């Protein structure tokens, strides 16, 4: 499998290029501002990009959609409630294939109503739901601390410890992590009741 992580744009965004192999079929995940290095990578790696996967509808995670779409003809995938120009609308539990890769969708509202994770081949792209050592904000439009509690403490923590975490921003001490490491070290994932979690976020 080919997996390239690009740090692009002024907000330390991570955009991902994933394919079953060099020269094979693949996807671009969360194309942000400053997409040129990713476009160059698509050409250099000769990837046939079939889909553009958006984890949520904040502009820094879809600003490069049209550039990638124009270059590759790829279809935009997003949660069905995302206010984006999407070709493929997905919901929790949906799955789709490109080449030899299968991507599974997990709906994780909290940062936005349309936030999703994409799971594939021992990896999970977490967007702005989970960062290395931190979680996403809930005080922006569409954010909901109670939904974030359910997404983090019930959904994220239900995932296998071995999964490699691919976050939406370079905000942590390392560019990637694992679910197991985050379970042990991420202070936002420590056991709390809903009321304790809401007070914790408010502080």
What can you tell me about this protein's structure?
With 203 residues, this protein is α/β, with parallel strands linked by helices. The chain has one domain: Ribonuclease Z/Hydroxyacylglutathione hydrolase-like (Metallo-beta-lactamase, Chain A). It has five helices and 14 strands. It has helices at 36-45, 65-72, 145-155, 179-185, 194-202, and strands at 2-8, 13-19, 25-29, 48-53, 75-79, 88-90, 95-98, 101-107, 116-120, 123-127, 130-131, 134-135, 164-167, 177-178. The strands form three sheets. A six-stranded mixed β-sheet has the order 1-2-3-4-5-6, with helices on one face. Strand 11 and strand 12 form a beta hairpin. The mean pLDDT is 98.
Discrete helix count: 5
- How confident overall, as mean pLDDT? 98
Name the CATH architecture. Answer: 4-Layer Sandwich
Largest sheet: 6 strands, mixed
């Amino acid at each position: 499998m080919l997996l390239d992580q690009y740090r692009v744009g002024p907000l330390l965004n991570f955009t991902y290029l994933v394919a079953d192999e060099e020269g094979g079929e693949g996807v671009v995940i969360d194309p942000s501002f400053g997409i040129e290095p990713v476009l160059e990578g698509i050409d250099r790696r000769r990837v046939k990009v079939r889909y553009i996967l958006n984890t949520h509808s904040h502009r820094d995670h879809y600003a490069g959609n049209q550039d990638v779409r124009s270059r590759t003809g790829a279809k935009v995938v997003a949660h069905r409630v995302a206010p984006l120009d999407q070709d493929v609308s997905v919901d929790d539990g949906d799955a789709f294939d490109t080449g030899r890769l299968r991507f599974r969708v997990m709906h994780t509202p909290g940062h936005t109503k349309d936030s999703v994770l994409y799971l594939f081949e021992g990896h999970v792209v977490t967007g702005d739901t989970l960062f290395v050592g931190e979680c996403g904000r809930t005080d922006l439009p569409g954010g909901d601390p109670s939904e974030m509690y359910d997404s983090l403490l019930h959904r994220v923590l239900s995932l296998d410890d071995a999964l490699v975490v691919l976050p939406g921003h370079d905000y942590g001490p390392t560019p990637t992590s694992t679910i197991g490491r985050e379970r042990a070290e991420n202070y936002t994932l420590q056991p709390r009741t809903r009321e304790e979690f809401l007070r914790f976020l408010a502080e």
